[in-house]
Amino acid sequence: MGKVVWDIARKADNLWVKWIHDKYIRTNDLSTFAAPQGDNWVVKAICRTKEKLIRFYGVSWMYNQKYSIAAIYQKLMDFGVKVNWCQAIWNHQNVPKHRFVCWLAMKDRLQTSYRLAHIGVCENNSCLLCDSGMDDGKHLFFECCYSEQCINKIKRWLGINAVTNNLHQMLEWVNIRYKGGKFRKKVVIASLMVVVYKIWQERNNVLWNQYVHTIDKVVNDIKSDVKQRVQFRVPRRLGEEDRQWLYSL
Ligand SMILES: [Zn+2]
Predict the structure, then answer these.
(1) For 27-76, how does the pLDDT look when each residue is reduced to its tens digit (9 = 90+)?
(2) Domain boundaries, the chain
(3) pLDDT, tens digit, for every residue of 110-152?
(4) Distance of CA 88 from the midpoint of ligand 1 (Å)
(5) Cα separation of 144 and 105, whole Å?
C-alpha cells in the first residue's frame, strides 16, 4: 500500500493513479488530503497508510526519487534498532536460565505483581522483598533496598565503583565503559545475570514459600555460582593476570 501512496503522490503515469486524482483528490495536495466521510474504502486505506508513513518519515518521503519496500518495512517493524545489551546477555558464558530471566527483566516482561495487577489478576502490588516500593521491574532491579545491597556487595567483590540506578544502566556501563578487558567483562556480565536471577528467585520465594534468605546468604550464593560457572569455562589462552584475578575472587 505504501508503494501505491507513493505512486499517487508523484502522479505516476498510469490509468488507476489518474483516476484516483481525478475522482477523489482533485486539486488537493495528497499530504494534506483527508478522505471525506462515506468515501470509497480504498481511498480511506490510502489516507491511513499515508498518515502512518508521514509519521515515520515526514512529508518528504512522498517525493523521493526511489521507493524501497524493504526499507519501509524495516522501519515500520523497527528492525533497525540494535539492542546493545542483547549480545552481552546471550553470551554462552552465562547460564541459560540466568540469561532468560535477565532478558525478561531487561524487556520488563517478568510477571511482577504490578503487571498482574494491571491486567486485574492480583490486587497487592507492593514489593515482596521490602514492602516499601512497588513489585515492578524498575523497583526490583535495583531500587529496592534488598537488591541494592546485593548488587553493591557484588560490585565491591568485582572491584566496580560505577554509580548506576538500574539494570539497563548497569549493563550499559559494563558493556561500554568497563575497562577490565574481554574476559573480565564476561565475568562481570555473568555475575550481573546471576544477581538478577537470584533476586527474582528470592522475590518468588517470598511469594510462594513465605521466606527470604539473608542478603549475605544470597551474595555468597551468587559468588559461588559465578565462580563455578566461570572456572568451568576458563579459556585455554587466558593471560596470567586475568587468571590471578579470577582465582582471587
Ligand atoms: Zn523492594
Answers:
(1) 777 777 777 766 677 778 877 777 777 766 667 767 777 777 776 666 66
(2) 2-77, 86-248
(3) 999 888 887 777 778 899 999 888 999 889 988 899 999 999 9
(4) 26
(5) 15
Determine the Cα–Cα distance for residues 178 and 175; give it in Å rounded to an integer: 6
Q: What is the pLDDT of residue 81?
A: 47
Task: State in Å: Cα 138 to ligand 1 middle.
Answer: 10
CA distance 187 to 158: 9
pTM of the predicted model, to two decimals? 0.66
How far away, in angstroms, is 155 Cα from ligand 1 center? 19
Going from the Cα of 192 to the center of ligand 1, the distance in angstroms, rounded, reads: 18
Report CA(224)–ligand 1 centroid distance (Å).
24
Please tell me the distance between residue 184's alpha carbon and the centre of ligand 1 in angstroms. Answer: 30
Q: How far is the CA of 147 from the centre of ligand 1 (A)?
A: 7
